[in-house]
Amino acid sequence: MTQHGSTSRLSPITRRRLQAFRDNRRAWWSFWLFLFLFVFSLGAELIANDKPIVMRYQGEWYVPLLVDYPETDFGGFLPTTAEYRDPFVKEGIETHGWMLWPPVPFSYDTLDQALDHPAPSPPDARHWLGTDDQGRDVLARVIYGFRLSVLFALALTIGSLVLGVVFGGIQGYFGGKVDLIGQRLSEIWSGLPVLFLLIILASLVEPNIWWLLGIMLLFSWLGLVDIVRAEFLRARNLEYVRAARAMGLPAHLIMWRHVLPNAMVATLTFIPFLFTGAITTLTALDFLGFGLPPGSPSLGELVAQGKNNLQAPWLGITAFVSLSLMLSLLVFIGEGLRDAFDPRHIQKPAGKPAGTLQPAAESDALPLPQEPTDER
Amino acid sequence: MNAEPVLQLDEVSIAFDRTTVVDRLSLQVGAGETLALVGESGSGKSVSALGAMGLLPANARIEGHCRLEGRDLASLTPRDWQRLRGNQVGFIFQEPMTSLNPLHTIGKQIGETLRLHQGLRGREARARARELLAQVHLPRVEELLDAWPHQLSGGQRQRVMIAMAIANRPRLLIADEPTTALDVTVQQEILQLLGELQSRHGMAMLFITHDLNLVRRHADRVCVLYQGREQETGSVARVFDAPRSAYTRTLLAAEPEGRPVSRPTSEVLLEAQRLSVTFRRPKRLFARRPPGFAAVKPLDLSLARGETLGIVGESGSGKTTLAMALLRLVESEGHITLGETRLDRLTGGDLRRQRRRAQIVFQDPYGALSPRMPVADIISEGLRYHHPEVDKETVRERVLSTLREVGLPREVAARYPHEFSGGQRQRIAVARAIILEPELLVLDEPTSALDRTVQKQLIRLLRNLQERRGLSYLFISHDLAVVRAMAHRIIVMKDGAIMEQGKCEEVLRSPTASYTQSLLKASFL
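ok -> structure tokens follow
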């Protein structure tokens, strides 16, 4: 019931856009595949980890995934966190109970000491995608790396969206001097070379993910400002915005309630491309070694390893496939969104569009009442 | 008249996605004849003309036969169509502002049709273009050939469109609301020009319009459409004098009628002294700023409680700017007094609190309502902001009672603006304004986007509201018939200055200013 209510409350434009996105099968499937991969990677700890998910030892339940147990609990000698992959500990536990391991029994930073080949070792039953030159499982690193890239891009996109909409909105809505000064400042600001700034930063501080996010955030919103500003400039002269002003609403309420919802359309179509841009930049920085701190699961670092170990093609191939898959999916989604929002784009010439969009004619749905109150 | 009609439609039906918009329409236009296709918006008049010429989007289905000079149009190949359009058939559309390509000069655009259909090039094409512009009575022809569309006024652009349409001496001219976007005095000239060209070239003309006054004066025969169906066809004299169908009779009776009912009091509500609005012109680098453009020249006006002041003028006369200035929506100079408050001195929050007292209803019913808010929220927004103390239940009550007052059913509250027709939206806009219980309501061309029958209802509603609530109206319109039905006093404006003012009846009966006289003459009152 509520479900039905909410869908029918969508305006026909929104419904048509949704339909157009759905009709674009490539975008639709890309969207679901990407969503699946993302949700899957969010549970990375359950899929690739060097700790068992749950275990039973001497009649007691343990959850090593969530709790750090000292080795002494399981008959070891050291009071440090238990090393479940250590043959001695493993054997001790398995004689007194059992362990449930994730499908990939390595985390992104697990060094496998028991390799048959010198690292990087080729794919085999133990390491499905082989190991990198430090003996770490590539599959585990890809899963964690994917998650990190997407989360980073997500945070960057949301941050840029907030900053871009705020600055673009203020410039566009007030126009005039505010706009002039704002535009000139953002032009100067966008002239700063981001990549060099990040490289300089890398020599000053130990860059972690927050530093990277912060620095990139300082610049990535500039692309959005122009779009949001243009939309606000257009919308501020629309009659319903004027009506709201005549009603005495303050500027921030008008912007929030009247202008923003209608400006979001143009902004939304830009987001997937902002997203891909963020992933590419992060990967590029990692490849150059100016990105995330060493040891982090990063796709860029995997690309670098592939380049340095041409004798181990599984590194380069994995990095290539995972990156191109992720970016292609995002581009397909982006294209689908852009086309769905474009009123002139008709996917199937014989399909529904145009005609159904016509505004209500002067005599439809709700017949005009026969002036009951007016005749007196 | 020739024996064979130039254009003949035989039982033509047009459907979009199984929705029939034109139902078995038959008509014919002979050489030298003008057939007017009349109906309200959505009656299928433009669609049938476009359909006959194969200009509809791909999802339209057309049945029946269209013949142009005996040739069945269904058998044409795309190449034949291209040769036909712009050559044997000329088009004039409603929007002169968007029908010309802004990136090409006038001469080049006319030259293009000449090159495509007659193979004229270079000097030859230019000479012919010059000749055509002279034929449509444009001044300074030589300069105009190298002018860009934005340098021309609406009327001039429409003349250029006509020049392009007749460039290849078409047999049939389709004029789709050719003058709707133009001022009344310009409208007259354009229609006279069309008539003149028609008789000179013996063209058949299909004249699509909603304005019965124009039909009466400029057409030979008329075909009335209602919801895609032909109501009646006949000579203009016969249809106007003895309409056969009930719909034609309502259409003919839909002229705005009646006079303002409420009696204005002597108490002055709004007063403006030496009010003027000047827009700054852009300044070139290192140049001195050119003097500003005076949209409204210093003028005085006053409005009593319960009175309607009509502001009349053509586009660009500054009437909307004047209203915006009175509401402090554009910067202005001079005194504005609303009740006892000096509006021109207020800023920020003080001004916003006063805004409750003066509300506005705009011209475009489609643009004036935020498309992403349900009607209840749109109407109650001002109330919720100005009276945060009012609880939800009371707000709801007030919305429903206001809806009742503007004659809309209560179910309207939960819907979105796109579900309503123009007239209903305009009622919603009125409801949004009066829920704040303003003393002054500015009506900026509230009826000009509506069909005549709907217009009449809205005028009646506005008059009743005024009587019941003692509202003062500032009624802006270019339509003298509507103004006469609404206003106690009128101001006639031209180029930002008042030409004439006085009691509505007196001004309209015996205008003194020559401008008012020409305005009256053009609008057939």
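The mean pLDDT of chain B is 85.
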